[in-house]
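Two records follow; treat each independently.
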Amino acid sequence: MIRPVLIASVLMLPVLAGCNTSVKAPTETGVCYAVERPDGEPVFNVLARGQVQIEMCAARLEEMRLRFRGMGVARDEVTGAYQGQFIFVDRRGVSFARTLEGARFFALARTGDGRLAVPGAIEREGITDLGVVVEEAPSPTFPGQ
């Protein structure tokens, strides 16, 4: 009885493996890819080599996005890949994900002048050293003043 079940489960492995259709990002070390989807299927084009960090790849993708805008192409989002991770550059900033459709980790935010920075490094008015928002109370008004 165990032998037929074992044989059936071994034969089902390729079928079950085919159910996972999520696209995997290339894992080549130090290579930054631009991801295009002309026909729905992603195409990985080498954008830069010798990138030592994923943030450097994100910077190359931001350069590409700005060059497109300089040519008059209105592209709000650019997708890339770096060592098994997907990178999404858009108006809000930069996000990373393991899959194209999966949950994204927000990594870099845009500053007031459009540059990219780590979200915690952006200084805003009214925030103390402890990260507490302080609102100035209006000065008290007295009747007759």
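The next record belongs to a different protein.
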Amino acid sequence: MLWGTHGKHHENGFTLLWDRSQGLKHAVPFVPFKDKDIELGKNGELKNKVRLIVRHYIDFDDSGVARIYLSRLVDLTNKEI
């Protein structure tokens, strides 16, 4: 999940996320499918937080130990995964 308890979608294709307690803000290239996808609960908090969908590629070293050697951002969503 991305940092942010509150959010607002802008027409430029980005959604501004911020955390009320920390005051941190960042804009992510996330366009909700419908306005209801940026649903607010009580106190104006996001009901569905924005999540990263990441693909990790695993490789094994000579001793057989697995490690993530590459990660790729695939998409953003606010649905439970």
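Discussion point: DSSP finds no helices and five strands in the chain. How would you locate this feature using only the token line?
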